[in-house]
Amino acid sequence: MGALSAWSAARVIGANDRVRLGLIGCGGRGKQDLETFLKQPDAEAAAVCDLYDPFREKAVAMTGGRAQGVTDFRRVLEEKDIDAVIVAVPDHWHAILTIAACDAGKDVYCEKPLSLTVVEGRHMLDAARRNRRVVQTGSQQRSGTQYAAAVKLIRDGGLGKVHRIRAGMQRNIYPGLKASEMANGPIASFNWDMWLGPAPKRAFDPFRCIYNFRWFWDYSGGQMTNWGAHHLDIARWIAGVDAPDEVAGFGGRFALTDGGETPDVQEVTYRMGKMVVAWTTSEIAAGKGFTLDIFGTRGVMTLTRGGFTVAPETEGKEKKPLMEALSMKGNDLDGAHARNFLDCVKSRQRPNADIEEGHRSAILCHLGNISTRLGRSLKWDPVKEQVPGDAEANAMLSRPYRAPWKLA
Ligand SMILES: NC(=O)c1ccc[n+]([C@@H]2O[C@H](COP(=O)([O-])OP(=O)(O)OC[C@H]3O[C@@H](n4cnc5c(N)ncnc54)[C@H](O)[C@@H]3O)[C@@H](O)[C@H]2O)c1
User: Fold this and answer.
1) Residue 8 — very low, low, confident or very high, per pLDDT cuts 50/70/90?
2) In 67, 211, 277, 387, which residue has its Cα 20 to 30 A from 319's Cα atom?
3) Which pLDDT value is given to residue 2?
4) Spatial contact of 235 and 292, defined as CB atoms under 8 Å apart
5) Sign of the alpha-carbon dihedral angle for 77, 79, 83, 86
6) pTM
7) 159 and 301 in contact (C-beta within 8 Å)?
8) Is 399 a member of any domain?
């Protein structure tokens, strides 16, 4: 008899059962995720894992000492009693952990951005499907009632014809950020080589490590992937497309002097059928902030985590409004997203931010960065997941892994 596949080995969880979770990565987001899940009556944390003792110990304490604290993620995946894992490590670890968890028969809540590269995302999606795992991308805006209502309103023609969306993240952190932990060197127990994992070997640098990994290409894609995974995901949902037709990006790390690599100024434009979507990163001026503005012939929607407002367009000298002004408040995004994941773990339905949506939205962000770094626009073949006729761009759709780590 052949080996049990992961999906047949996993336990069947009844509607009244508690879902036993393992948290991998107890940093800023991991602790928030833990707090969110522990508020759900049918979730409990059986294990929490982190390489950095203070964060792991804090997470154990948050469970009232009930969760086991471990440093090696493989111990979480070996634990038969764990139904699902939360992957809240830096982006360069998402693929290895999600694939290993799916192969071990666990459902997965993987933080956004789903992947570090396009090829990783494809392997992750394949692992989820072949093991019949529920995998929720941690793009909690997908569980926002205002986002769902906005998508419906726009698709129903409520704003008139919509052909333009702008999305972005603007703030002022000039001249840059500082190391947030271990600024004077790693604590004795910290396994920096394990933190690096599949990424290239380097001497310890506190600025590359906790939180600020986001500004280094080896571990992340900067604000393009960090916030693009939220707002461009919604823009793509509104546009109703799987992928862009064409992408053009410009930018760089022009002003910040903190040693980071990813752009502090970046503009990326996407053509998605008859929709033009523009992405802005600004780390050097907050200006008049925006996250998502949707421009229609009858009104303009400002869509944020707090809710949405619609300002009517007007016509004629008398400025007659073309529609009623609208507004809607938002819900608890994190709570709703965790709830949706737990419900899907039980029902085996696809969650609100199913891994396939996470993969497609991460592709938008990765292509934005590749275009920016190459300094040329790119077309995209969503079936082959390739940039037609551009070997240099295609080489940037994946990364070599440092041994002994392998993608699949
Ligand atoms: N959904 C959201 O709104 C949201 C918000 C913030 C962060 N995030 C995502 O969460 C992830 C983590 O971000 P963060 O800000 O919490 O980073 P962080 O640096 O604060 O925390 C990451 C933790 O992972 C640990 N870690 C790294 N490699 C590990 C390994 N191999 N095994 C065990 N532990 C390991 C680190 O020691 C660290 O404590 C990122 O992918 C980020 O994009 C999502």
Assistant:
1) low
2) 277
3) 40
4) yes
5) negative
6) 0.97
7) yes
8) no
pLDDT of residue 7: 54
Cα 225–Cα 367–Cα 125 angle in degrees, nearest 5 = 75
Residue 64 within any structural domain of the chain: yes
Percent share of the chain, pLDDT over 70: 98
Ligand 1 atom 8 nearest Cα: 29
Q: How far is the CA of 94 from the centre of ligand 1 (A)?
A: 10
Measured CA angle at 82 (ends 143, 18), to 5 deg: 60
Tell me how far the alpha carbon of residue 30 lies from the centroid of ligand 1, in angstroms: 6
Which H or E run includes 9? Answer: helix 6-9
Our answer on whether the CB atom of 227 is closer than 6 Å to any ligand 1 atom is no
Cα(49)–Cα(54) distance, integer angstroms:
11
Does the residue 128 lie in any domain? yes
Q: What is the mean pLDDT of residues 259-284?
A: 97
Indicate if ligand 1 lies below 6 Å from the C-beta of 211: yes
Residue range 199-228: mean pLDDT, rounded: 98
The reply to whether ligand 1 has any atom less than 6 angstroms from the CB of 372 is: no
| 241 and 370 fall within a common domain | yes
131 Cα: distance to centroid of ligand 1 (angstroms) = 25
Same domain, 129 and 193: no
Which CATH number does the domain housing residue 364 bear?
A: 3.30.360.10
Cα-to-centroid distance, 301 and ligand 1 (Å): 32
Residue 86's SS3 state is: strand
Q: Is the CB of 217 under 6 A from ligand 1?
A: no
Helix (H) or strand (E) holding 55: helix 53-62
Whether ligand 1 lies within 6 angstroms of the CB of 24 is answered as yes
Answer whether 55 contacts ligand 1 (Cβ < 6 A): yes
Q: For residue range 313-372, list pLDDT tens digits in order.
A: 999 999 999 999 999 999 999 999 999 999 999 999 999 999 999 999 999 999 999 999
Q: Pocket of ligand 1, candidates 29, 48, 108: which has the most ligand atoms within 8 Å of its Cβ, to mutate?
A: 29
47 CB within 6 A, ligand 1 = no
User: How many structural domains compose the chain?
Assistant: 2
**Three-state DSSP class for 316?**
coil
Does any ligand 1 atom lie closer than 6 A to the CB of residue 197?
Answer: yes
